[in-house]
Design brief:
The complex is a heterodimer of chains A (243) and B (216).
Chain A (H helix, E strand, L loop, with lengths): L1 H7 L3 H33 L13 H28 L2 H33 L7 H21 L4 H15 L2 H11 L9 E2 L3 E2 L3 H33 L11
Antiparallel strand pairs in A: 1-2
Chain B lengths: L1 H12 L2 H21 L4 H24 L4 H5 L2 H7 L4 H29 L8 H25 L5 H28 L3 H31 L1
The chains are: A mainly alpha (243), B mainly alpha (216).
Chain lengths: 243, 216
């Protein structure tokens, strides 16, 4: 029953049609939340008692870091779907999400590096969290390289899915690196079990920024995957209406 | 299973380049490091473990680079696939034979060189244990990289599998520190052994699926 449900709703054609319906709304909401979160955070949130104004980069850095890990997690779920149920769309989504993952992980590393100068006095530190995030960045690039190395797209999809599933072992390491090692990087300020350790006046714009970043990434993912699906399915009849 | 082991051991034993090459390269790297930089013996003692760890990482990759490629090129893997033989056992046998013939000697070389660089004689067996367990993990991970890039060159295998090996290096580094500071060796070595057993049990399944994908 689950298999038939998945196959019915996971055809590339229906994905392109359904996502086209809500793409403008997701993009608009994403930009709106990002604008609201950033304006609130940069202009109206209070100055931090210790870090001064430099902390305001969290409104970019934290959402980007969360998305960097979430995108990989999403890819690993898609990889499992592709390996178990042979869902073609799942492989297309992995291939489309990987460049988005590269971009957002780069933003997380770069913004963290900028934040490092006023707080740590250095652009880079071989700290557990930073190094593991750099490894994530390389993993995204490795996945893209692996897929592009094979001319047989179906074989490339399966090998890429296997690599993504194996690579998911790094995600808990990145997440827990600040707890497992004594690192320069601060521990998580927002936790599901312990709540938030930051003031609500900073937490609200941060939450809105995270939501905005998530929606923007979904919109970007839809856009990239649509182009990729149309390229991969170019010989199918239904694609002609989009070209 | 014993048949697979003896067959793989026979094949590897007769490929001198495949097992002696990595060991010689490891020795050369470990000799080259003290020659290449002008540092005192005191500094050398501090840094030498890092050299052993990094050379272990790179040589492990070199050692597993062609673990499946020859069988793939001469059609043996395809024949095994067509005969529906158990890929898991063959993969496991290949990895364990490589660990036995190359990994364990590498760990021995690493521990001897650590003795030559100021580690007390009593600590050498501990270093050997840690390095041996690490080679088991690393050979599994790099065999996966080799399986992924079976006909696409070794660079792709490194790019794909090296990020997966880095957590093992973190563990190895922690193990080395326990030897240096003289506490917590048992806990870390048991943790490493546990990780190695899990990796050894799971990785051949993943590698089998990867090889089957290449053959389908």
């Amino acid at each position: 029953m689950l298999t038939s449900f998945i196959h019915r709703f996971s055809s590339p054609k229906s994905f392109v049609e359904v996502t086209a319906l809500f793409f403008p709304y997701v993009m608009f909401l994403g930009f709106l939340c990002l604008a609201l979160g950033w304006i609130w955070g940069l202009a109206f949130a209070p100055e931090d008692a210790i870090q001064g104004n430099s902390y305001r980069i969290i409104f970019l850095h934290v959402p980007a870091s969360i998305m960097a890990q979430l995108i990989y997690f999403f890819m690993s779920i898609c990889a499992l779907m592709h390996l178990v149920w042979r869902v073609k769309l799942a492989a297309y989504l992995i291939k489309s999400a990987a460049p988005v993952g590269v971009l957002i992980t780069f933003i997380a590393l770069f913004s963290g590096s900028i934040w490092g100068i006023p707080t740590w006095g250095t652009w880079w530190q071989w700290d557990a969290r930073i190094t593991s995030t750099l490894i994530l960045f390389i993993m995204y690039l490795g996945i893209i390289t692996l897929h592009s190395s094979f001319s047989n797209a179906e074989k490339a999809d399966r090998l890429m899915s296997i690599l993504v599933v194996v690579g998911v072992v790094n995600i808990p390491i990145i997440k827990k690196s600040v707890d497992w090692w004594s690192t320069l990087h601060q521990p998580a300020s927002i936790s599901i079990s312990d709540g938030a350790s930051i003031d609500p006046s900073m937490l609200y714009p941060l939450t809105i920024s995270i939501l905005g970043m998530a929606l923007t990434m979904i919109a970007l993912g839809i856009l990239v995957s649509k182009f990729y699906i149309l390229t991969r399915e170019k010989n199918k009849k239904w694609v002609q209406s989009y070209v | 299973m014993i048949n697979f082991f003896s067959l793989e051991a026979f094949k590897l034993r007769h490929k001198l380049r495949a097992w002696l090459g990595p060991l010689l390269i490891m020795i050369l790297v470990l000799i080259a490091f003290p020659l290449s930089i002008d540092i005192s013996q005191y500094d050398l003692n501090k840094f030498y473990f890092s050299v052993i760890v990094v050379s272990l990482l790179m040589i492990s990759f070199l050692a597993t680079e062609s673990i499946f490629s020859e069988d793939y090129e001469d059609g043996s893997l395809e024949q095994i696939h067509l005969e529906e033989k158990d890929f898991y056992k063959i993969t496991l046998a290949k990895i364990l034979v490589h660990v036995f013939f190359i990994g364990i000697p590498m760990a021995l070389i690493g521990s001897i060189f650590s003795f030559a660089n100021g580690v007390s004689f009593a600590e050498v067996p501990k270093i050997f244990v840690i390095l041996s367990i690490s080679t088991l993990i690393l050979f599994n991970v790099f065999a996966f990289g080799s399986a992924l890039s079976i006909n696409k060159g070794s660079m792709l295998g490194v790019v794909a599998s090296l990020p997966l090996a880095l957590p093992a290096i973190v563990l190895l580094g922690r193990g080395v520190r326990t030897v240096q500071y003289g506490q917590g060796f048992f806990e870390v070595s048991v943790l490493m052994a546990g990780v190695a057993l899990i990796v050894t049990a799971l990785m051949p399944i993943i590698i089998s699926a990867t090889l089957k994908t290449h053959l389908e």
